[in-house]
Backbone:
């Protein structure tokens, strides 16, 4: 394998790693929802059209395992669960912005084609 | 729905649109492969570890439908099929770069956790 091919495969591996962690329809929207102040499960669920509770639970667990959000038990009566974006999760801003702007441009392109 | 909620839902819709078009494990790697000079099906296939021909065919069709690559029939003996990234497809650079750099950082973070 040439140096160039090795470099190329490292590049696509990094991109595939990112897609594994934050890819799909729901992960970044969930992080953005928590980031915009929706701390409780139902608040997050209500803010994202068409997400089911089963999917939201699964994705929250995945995001927690990947250190992007924290699940906090608030000692109250009754006990409350609140989610928060980690400092590390805030770093996703550098991805969310270009994804958003590209999506807008693509919509115009595809509608205008 | 408040203005803020509407703005938020537009934002996540744009991100979901982008993920629909370029999400998953293979689409950006395929575009990068074609962009780096792999024009023929087998060249692209050989450059991306673990991709199957069935998946590559499906993804190439999807990328063509979304105006990101072109499929060109070269009148030769025998006829050849060559792929190329469209100018529009080149615009994905603004997404591929942050995805690559985030993936590198995440690997260090997860290994170091």
Residues:
């Amino acid at each position: 394998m040439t140096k160039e091919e090795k470099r190329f495969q490292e590049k696509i591996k990094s991109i595939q790693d990112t897609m594994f962690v934050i890819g799909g329809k729901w992960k970044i929207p969930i992080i953005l929802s928590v980031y915009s102040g929706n701390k409780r499960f139902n608040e997050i669920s209500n803010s994202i059209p068409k997400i089911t509770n089963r999917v939201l639970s699964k994705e929250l667990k995945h995001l927690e395992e990947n250190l992007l959000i924290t699940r906090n038990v608030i000692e109250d009566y009754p006990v409350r669960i609140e989610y928060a974006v980690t400092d590390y999760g805030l770093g996703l801003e550098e991805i969310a912005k270009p994804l958003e702007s590209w999506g807008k441009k693509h919509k115009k392109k595809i509608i205008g084609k």
Remarks:
- Chain B has one domain: 3-112.
- The CA atoms of residues 68 and 89 of chain B lie 4 Å apart.
